[in-house]
Design a protein that fits this description.
Elements: E1 2-8, E2 12-18, E3 24-30, H1 37-51, E4 57-64, E5 67-68, E6 74-76, H2 88-95, E7 100-105, H3 106-118, E8 123-128, E9 132-138, E10 141-143, H4 173-177, H5 179-190, H6 196-205, H7 208-232, E11 236-240, H8 242-245, H9 250-259, E12 271-273, H10 280-291
Parallel strand pairs: 1-4, 4-7, 8-11, 11-12
Antiparallel strand pairs: 1-2, 2-3, 5-6, 8-9, 9-10
Helix pairs in contact: 3-10, 5-7, 6-7, 7-9
Length: 294
């Protein structure tokens, strides 16, 4: 029987299936322009059925940026607020009859996958994309653990007077360092809308507006990384996610800001690029499908 991993993001969804033969198949799609639950679920169903036939899936692991209750119902998702109340586990069970469905935070699963890839049992992961996710693995286990809520790294407050986050607070690291937040800052500095590729190319070229926009995001991530290190003392701190992976030199910039925050007797942690790039959460979702207890 096939195992299926789903990385459900704010703008796109990635699916990866692992057949009994060991062969992987994968697809990625963007959410429809029509912002509605019906349109989203129809797209998810269509792409899932194209990848795997109904009845062939043993277990599904789902990486979600939304807050879910213990039954798999969406409690809050600032990026797609119209999903509130959707019983995701029931929808997927109906789509894939007979399959076990396990859902977890995308940042938590990214951390689990990165720890597995690095062979490291104590790790902090920061994932930068449409939002900022992350997770903590201690002694090989997710903290706080499945069923006990997610590790909301993106909602660590790094600037009490900063921009308002989608969650309602001001100054969350997500409000400062997410991909959209960085692009908005770049647009303000350049006084014109900025696409990701423009920001990337301008940053590599050393243009001041792009450097300043990215630098502020990296400084916020460094503050979060140092704060988490003070609490849990991981052996490894990893920065990944699609946005971070797409900008050459991004992780090095986070590392430089992190080094500047060292204090006597407490050296700053080394910052590593995610081994799985922008695929950490998807890999973690498939890992969850393969290892979660029935």
């Amino acid at each position: 029987m096939t195992h299926l991993g789903m990385d459900v993001g704010g703008t796109k969804v990635a699916l990866r299936a692992l057949a009994p033969s060991g062969e992987h198949t994968e697809t990625v799609f963007r959410w429809p322009e029509e912002r509605s639950v019906d349109a989203d679920l129809a797209a998810l169903a269509a792409h899932t059925r194209t990848l795997v036939p109904a009845g062939a899936v043993e277990a599904v692991g789902v990486a979600m940026p939304a807050t879910l209750d213990a039954e798999g119902r969406v409690v809050a998702w600032p990026g797609r607020p119209f999903w509130r109340g959707v019983d995701l586990r029931a929808e997927l069970t109906g789509l894939l009859p007979g399959a076990r469905v396990d859902c977890a935070d995308d940042g938590d699963l990214g951390a689990l996958a990165e720890a597995d890839a690095a062979g490291c049992r104590d790790l902090v992961y920061l994932g930068v994309g449409t939002g900022v996710g992350g997770g903590i693995v201690l002694d090989g286990r997710l903290v706080p653990g499945l069923g006990r809520g997610s590790c909301e790294v993106g909602h660590i407050v790094v600037d009490r007077s900063g921009e308002r986050c989608a969650c309602g607070r001001r100054g969350c690291v997500q409000a400062v360092a997410s991909g959209p937040a960085t692009l908005r800052r770049a647009a303000g500095l350049r006084d014109t809308p900025v696409e990701f590729t423009e920001l990337r190319d301008a940053f590599v070229a050393g243009e001041e507006w792009a450097t300043a926009a990215v630098d502020e995001s990296c400084a916020a991530l460094a503050a979060a990384a140092v704060s988490l290190t003070e609490l849990v003392h991981p052996r490894r701190v990893v920065v990944g996610g699609g946005f971070a992976a797409g900008i050459p030199g991004y992780v090095a910039r986070v590392a430089a800001h992190t080094s500047a925050l060292a204090r006597p007797g407490a050296p700053a942690p080394e910052i590593h690029a995610a081994r799985l790039g922008g695929l950490s959460s998807l890999t973690g979702a498939l890992l969850l499908a393969r290892t979660a207890e029935p």
